[in-house]
Amino acid sequence: MKFKLKSDYAPAGDQPQAIGELVDGINRGVHSQVLLGVTGSGKTFTMANVIERTQLPTLIISHNKTLAAQLFQEFKEFFPENAVEYFVSFYDYYQPEAYIPSTDTYISKTSMINDEIDRLRLKATSSLLSRRDVVIVASVSCIYGIGSPEAYEGAAVKLREGQELNRREFLLALADMQYRRNDMSLERGTFRVKGDVVEIQPAYEENAVRIETFGDQLETISYITPLTGKIRQRLDEVTIFPAKHYMTTGDVTMAEAVKRITEELDERLSVLRGSGKLVEAQRLEQRTRYDMEMLAEVGYVNGIENYSRILDGRGPGTRPYTLIDFFKPPYLLIVDESHATLPQIQGMYNGDRARKETLVDHGFRLPCALDNRPLKFHEFEGLADKTLFVSATPGDYELSKSGGLIVEQVIRPTHLVDPPIEIRPAANQVDDLIEQLRVVVERGERTLVTTLTKKMAEDLTEYLGSIDFRVRYLHSEIDTLERTDILKDLRTGEFDILIGINLLREGLDLPEVALVAILDADKEGFLRSARSIVQIAGRAARNVNGRIILYADSVTDSISKAMEESGRRRSKQLAYNKERGITPRSAERRIDTMLSPYGPSPTAEFAEAAEPSTGYGKKRRGRKTAREDDDNIRKSARGKRLEKGVDDGVNEPLSPDNDISDKNVRKSARGKRLGEGVDNGIDSSLSLEEGINKSLRLYDDIAAGNIRKSARGKRLEKGVDNGVNEPLSPDNDISDKNVRKPLRGKQLEGSINTGVNKPYRNSKKSSTNGENGRLMMIEAEMIEAAKNLDFERAAALRDRLASLKQGNGE
């Protein structure tokens, strides 16, 4: 199948020219090109058009998971009919094996594998081996070893309808591919056998494969829903790929691999013993022989990657097989944000080498473990085919590698110009920042603030929060999934200001951000280099009101270069708009597709077997739903006017069925109406008049500060523990003793130990007896004032009404 791009818009601005030049360079056989595209110029859309026009399988490398997820989702939308895959590290948590000689401390490998990402990684390799219309979005984990593509493909089993199939050999082949038999339930990487039917859950698919045989003939192949067994699609043929990336080649059987490991062990033991390292020799022999027994019996062992060179049949010192080896030339390599991605690739090898040499020297691993490593940079260069470096600030390497062949994309499709940069003194930067923030927040826009340290980011967040700004921070100690939620909350308006350090730079698509403030901009270094300043400034380039403030007491070389480059681009953009009479507009981007590597949750196709969806457990720490803010719970303290509302789920106008008390503020479930039921202080049977009276009494009680003063055993009109003050009346009087026992031998519909008097009316009395027209008018005014939240006027009318009634002898 060919690449087919689907989009609601066509190339605009500089995009048509850039796409034409890049495609022409690829067709002419140019090895490396640079796309210098400003932030917001649609570089992703340009890349998608280049892929469609060249029809080349493509590997896109990004320098972090967040941006990789964003790119993956965008390309999934651009190429819905083609294979767009996601390949990043499958560890949610990873502590590599290490040894610290100075303290004789061994740290074993511990990790938490994300099962879904592991499936997506296997899906990426299986797609590459079965089709050509493949786009893979990867992090730098793509330069780490994953096993031989020849071994992986060689172990695969191809099935087609009507072929002869030896069931025993087929089941043994599944076991060799590291699938586990489970006849009870289908899980990823398992299979089950029921008579003439074999059902397999491939490690890389969401659907299972059902194989139906008659004797030795394969009758039908179909995709099924694993849970219900419902057939989803009939297939003519299918290829089952291994459940793990590490497989032995046909030339190296597991028995041969164990033999070679033994030979290397004996050689290494003689070296260690000859050097007098007897402890290290004993340690190495014990660990390695255990691994060999596991490989011989099970075919797999934890840490099998340390023997990958032997299992692959490679010689000592040779590079490992990586994801790039699964691409068959010609293919296109796109390095996104190349100024940040390439340095990561360059630095991976040395750190890994230093750690593993220590393990080998002290008898924890054989020397073959050194060859389980990331690629050296020159090896990466040798594997790259047609390469496109994409960045708003390309580095020196990319510029030299392309030989000066740079394609500029400066004019944005929205025709926005680069935001103006303003320099302000750093001496009073926080005070000035607060004034700027107030202006932006009032307009309903967002702000990014960058600091130099994590502590400063946290302290500034706390300080701004104390003066009623809605603010959060973002730095490396916040886990990856939570970062995406924070960015989404910023866009949806859950908060207005995001403070960070180095994570608010490349690739973040935040059209709502109108102000970027860089604190301590004159502190020369990596975080305040010219490239960093340009990248940070680019976060405001998608908003028509975007502007940049640099807080600096001196103009450094980096600031000067950044302003010069921004001025050059701005001049070009302004001239383009003036020539064509164009008015810029802010960029637009849907929020529901942002930063998700999985896309929207699919609708269940087996609804007939499903129960209504229920939310289990609490949301992750740091998540906030609409009108939910822990700070507001603390701020809704006694003494404040209740009509201002409590943002933890208490309705602002108090009504009879959701009246509140101070204790209820603490007990109420956030986000739920109190009328759904709270433990104490609520009587849903109160009439409208009684409910308003009760609300007024609560207003009086809180305003007077009687909550702290009241105590059980005192006259209830002085205040009750839970903040509800019932004025005593002839028909529902409560004495001191009645607090502890039911009123006059009658149950009050429950205990009274909370101080709330349930309605208990004397049938001989009528609330309407003796009322004249004047009293009714005042009472009606009081009710209307309470409905309009004018509790002060309602309280005054209530007091006047009580005085008149008392004068009438009521």
* Number of continuous helical runs: 23
**What's the overall geometry?**
globular
Flag low-confidence runs.
Answer: 598-686, 702-770
Which structural class do the helices and strands define? alpha/beta
Gap between N and C termini, in Å? 90 Å
Q: Give me the side-by-side strand order of the main sheet.
A: 3-8-2-17-18-1-19
Count the E strands.
Answer: 25
Largest sheet: 7 strands, parallel
- The oligomerization state is single chain
The mean pLDDT is 78
What fraction strand? Answer: 5-15%
Overall radius of gyration: 35 Å
Helix content: 25-40%
Keywords for this entry:
25 strands; 7-stranded parallel beta sheet; 6-stranded mixed beta sheet; alpha/beta; globular; 23 helices; 810 residues
Q: Would you kindly provide a written description of the structure presented here, covering whatever features stand out?
A:
The chain is α/β, with parallel strands linked by helices. 36% of the residues lie in helices and 15% in strands. It contains 23 helices and 25 strands. The strands form six sheets. Strands 3-8-2-17-18-1-19 form a seven-stranded parallel β-sheet. Strands 10-11-12-13-14-15 form a six-stranded mixed β-sheet, with no helix packed on it. A six-stranded parallel β-sheet has the order 20-25-24-21-23-22, with helices on both faces. A hairpin with a 2-residue loop joins strand 13 and strand 14 (217-224). Helix 7 (254-274) packs antiparallel against helix 8 (278-297) and helix 22 (773-787) runs antiparallel to helix 23 (791-807). The longest helix has 24 residues, at 338-361. Residues 598-686 and 702-770 have low confidence and may be disordered.
